[in-house]
């Protein structure tokens, strides 16, 4: 249902003018001498899901979309519907209003009204159009965010597997489970963030088209979708030990749940996010060994600094809009000294990785690839990024999620395989030596 409310009594008459010869012209002409009603309600049908529509005319309108939103939005004239977002709907009424593609509004004839009002047959195109807002809500197409949740767990798991001599098949099984969990965790975080930030998102150019902010998905629908994610994640950790269970619950609820509120009260929301995003480091140790050694806390500190590094670059995309909307971030806090401060956090990250490797007795592959290679990569990234260019900042964020994360994990993995194969070689050499001693003893006999 679409509901229009005029800002003044003449607005509706000026906006909706029947065409000559229309079947509604006679009725409308009789009403010209009367006061124009303040409301007019018409049906909404999904007809051209890829088209954009715009309401033109004087006054301001209040629209309510039954199929896409349970909330109302005040829409200024000569602006796309939903406070700046595109309306992916065909607006129609059997007797009156029909919104055609950009930019005209006109009365259709009765045949068109009937054809538009008829239910559309099922098609894969319509199904894909219906699923698209839900897919966009999870940000699954922007996979860098999922990888940034996954890498700390992968690093912690590989460090734990090396120390606890976890067999390779079990290691890769746990790695796959962690990847699924990271995907669900990132998607759930995006849904929750968009629910709480929907009013902020409407004021930011980059985010105003998000499904909740634009009205394509209702808040109750998003909440149900969020609980579906949380239910699966809770089921996945149902059999872990007590320490791992507590870490999982704290990560899912207070840590991830409070993050969207931090940007309202502090310029350091990235510091809170750094704890939430990197809990996988200690989760891996707790799940496998039931304890958290000092090396895990050293790695956690390094990944915390990494989160501030890449998420500050991410926040640089919206600096101007965030100031207008009242959103706080380290991107605004650091100001003109942003590259210098980020260099400090990059150094803290590498110091955490170095200390973690020393405490966990890692070998040359780790220190060369993870620490050495990661340091060079971060320095190069910081040199080339333009913090005043949204495109450059997004590119740096994306590369951190894929390239840098993979480079550091390659060092962890090479060292794990090195240690595992080294132990196997030592065991094999010991067996050969024992066999030679037995043969020598038999020969002397």
TrEMBL record:
To which pathway does this protein belong? Secondary metabolite biosynthesis; Cofactor biosynthesis; ubiquinone biosynthesis
Q: Which Pfam families does its entry note?
A: UbiA
Gene3D superfamilies from the xrefs?
A: UbiA prenyltransferase (1.10.357.140)
Q: Where in the cell is it found?
A: Membrane; Mitochondrion inner membrane
What GO molecular function terms would the record report? 4-hydroxybenzoate polyprenyltransferase activity
For this protein, the parts annotated as crossing the membrane are 140-159, 171-196, 217-237, 243-262, 271-290, 296-316, 337-358, 364-383, 404-426
Q: What InterPro entries does its record include?
A: HB_polyprenyltransferase-like (IPR006370), Prenyltransferase (IPR039653), UbiA_prenyltransferase (IPR000537), UbiA_prenylTrfase_CS (IPR030470), UbiA_sf (IPR044878)
- Family of this protein: Belongs to the UbiA prenyltransferase family.
Q: Some GO term, biological process aspect, for this entry: which one?
A: isoprenoid biosynthetic process
Cofactor(s) for this UniProt protein = Mg(2+)
Identify its membrane topology class.
Multi-pass membrane protein
What's the protein called, per UniProt?
A: 4-hydroxybenzoate polyprenyltransferase, mitochondrial
Q: Which GO terms describe its cellular component?
A: mitochondrial inner membrane
Q: What does this protein do?
A: Catalyzes the prenylation of para-hydroxybenzoate (PHB) with an all-trans polyprenyl group. Mediates the second step in the final reaction sequence of coenzyme Q (CoQ) biosynthesis, which is the condensation of the polyisoprenoid side chain with PHB, generating the first membrane-bound Q intermediate.
Primary localisation category: membrane
Q: Which reaction does it catalyse?
A: an all-trans-polyprenyl diphosphate + 4-hydroxybenzoate = a 4-hydroxy-3-(all-trans-polyprenyl)benzoate + diphosphate
Quick one: where's region Disordered?
A: 1-34
- Give its E.C. classification number: 2.5.1.39
Keywords from the named record: Isoprene biosynthesis, Membrane, Mitochondrion, Mitochondrion inner membrane, Transferase, Transmembrane, Transmembrane helix, Ubiquinone biosynthesis
At the top level, the lineage of the source is Eukaryota
- The organism encoding this protein is Mycena maculata
């Amino acid at each position: 249902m679409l509901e229009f409310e005029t800002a003044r009594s003449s607005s509706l008459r000026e906006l909706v003018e029947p065409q000559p010869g229309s079947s509604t012209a006679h009725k409308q002409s009789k009403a010209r001498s009367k006061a124009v009603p303040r409301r007019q309600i018409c049906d909404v049908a999904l007809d051209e899901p890829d088209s954009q529509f715009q309401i033109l005319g004087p006054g301001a309108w209040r629209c309510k979309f039954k199929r896409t939103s349970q909330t109302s939005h005040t829409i200024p004239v000569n602006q796309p519907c939903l406070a700046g977002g595109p309306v992916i709907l065909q607006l129609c009424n059997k007797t009156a209003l029909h919104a055609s593609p950009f930019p005209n509004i006109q009365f259709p004839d009765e045949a068109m009204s009937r054809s538009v009002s008829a239910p559309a047959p099922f098609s894969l195109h319509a199904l894909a159009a219906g699923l698209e807002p839900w897919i966009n809500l999870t940000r699954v197409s922007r996979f860098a965010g999922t990888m940034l949740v996954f890498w700390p767990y992968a690093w912690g798991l590989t460090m734990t597997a090396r120390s606890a001599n976890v067999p390779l098949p079990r290691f890769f099984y746990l790695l796959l489970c962690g990847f699924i969990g990271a995907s669900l965790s990132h998607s759930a975080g995006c849904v929750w963030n968009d629910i709480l930030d929907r009013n902020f998102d409407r004021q930011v150019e980059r985010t105003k088209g998000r499904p909740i902010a634009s009205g394509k998905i209702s808040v109750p629908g998003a909440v149900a979708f969020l609980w579906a994610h949380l239910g699966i994640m809770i089921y996945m950790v149902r059999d872990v030990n007590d320490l791992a269970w507590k870490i999982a619950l704290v990560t899912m609820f207070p840590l991830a749940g409070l993050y969207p509120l931090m940007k309202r009260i502090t310029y350091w929301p990235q510091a809170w996010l750094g704890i939430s995003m990197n809990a996988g480091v200690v989760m891996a140790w707790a799940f496998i060994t039931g304890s958290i050694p000092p090396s895990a806390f050293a790695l956690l500190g390094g990944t915390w600094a990494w989160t501030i590094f890449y998420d500050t670059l991410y926040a640089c995309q919206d600096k101007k809009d965030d100031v207008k909307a009242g959103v706080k971030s380290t991107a605004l806090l650091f100001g003109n000294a942003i590259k210098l401060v980020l260099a400090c956090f990059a150094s803290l990250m590498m110091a955490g990785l170095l200390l973690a490797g020393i405490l966990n007795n890692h070998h040359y592959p780790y220190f060369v690839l993870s620490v050495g290679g990661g340091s060079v990569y971060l320095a190069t990234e910081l040199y080339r990024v333009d913090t005043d260019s949204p495109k450059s900042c997004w590119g740096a964020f994306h590369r951190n999620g894929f390239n840098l994360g993979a480079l550091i994990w390659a060092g962890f993995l090479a060292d794990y395989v090195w240690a595992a194969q080294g132990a196997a070689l030592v065991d094999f050499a010991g067996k050969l030596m024992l066999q030679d001693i037995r043969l020598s003893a038999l020969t002397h006999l």
